[in-house]
Amino acid sequence: MPTPGYTREIPQRYRLEANKCKNCGKISFPPRLVCPYCGARNFEPTKLSDTGKIVTFTTIRVAPGRYAAYVPYSIAIIELNDGVKITTQVVDCKPEDLEIGKAVRIIFRKMYPEGKTGIICYGYKAVLI
């Protein structure tokens, strides 16, 4: 399990920050040291779009330990408006409300409490718009 200090230092988890290659203009998420498209190593940080659409999804009905209390819940691959695809949970809706192509917004939410002290870890999730 990551500690809260560690996860707070990861810009992509908290600000949807990616790398844009200065050579070819392609966006890498999560950020990489070498561009997977052209091999360049020169990037600039870029903020990803917070809206997109569902490409595909599944509903979890038997979940691992810490998520068992939340079943059923849905996980989707979301294509953001800038072309980047992310995998995230879709919240605040019933599984039967989901459809491929539906518009979503990425929001900042509680992921899970960590350790004996219950320190809360945060990240991004999607909601239907």
Model description:
The protein has 129 residues and is mostly beta strands. The chain folds into 2 domains: 1-48; 49-129, OB fold (Dihydrolipoamide Acetyltransferase, E2P), CATH 2.40.50. The chain is built from 2 helices and 8 strands, in the order ααββββββββ. It has helices spanning 4-8, 11-15, and strands at residues 17-21, 27-28, 43-47, 51-60, 73-80, 85-91, 103-114, 119-128. A hairpin with a 4-residue loop joins strand 7 and strand 8. The model has no long low-confidence stretch (mean pLDDT 89).
Secondary structure layout plus pairing:
Elements lengths: L3 H5 L2 H5 L1 E5 L5 E2 L14 E5 L3 E10 L12 E8 L4 E7 L11 E12 L4 E10 L1
Parallel strand pairs: 6-8
Antiparallel strand pairs: 1-2, 1-3, 4-5, 4-7, 5-6, 7-8
Rg (C-alpha, Å): 16 Å
Number of continuous helical runs:
2
Mean pLDDT: 89
Termini separation comes to 32 Å
* CATH architecture descriptor name of the largest domain: Beta Barrel
What is the share of helical residues?
under 10%
Q: Describe the biggest sheet?
A: 5 strands, mixed, barrel
Strand arrangement within the widest β-sheet reads 4-5-6-8-7
Strand content: over 45%
User: Low-confidence spans: pLDDT under 50, at least 5 residues?
Assistant: none
Q: Which structural class should the secondary elements be placed in?
A: mainly beta
E-strand count: 8
Output the CATH class name of the largest domain.
Mainly Beta
Strand and helix order? HHEEEEEEEE
Task: Give the CATH topology of the largest domain.
Answer: OB fold (Dihydrolipoamide Acetyltransferase, E2P)
Number of discrete domains: 2
Shape assignment: globular
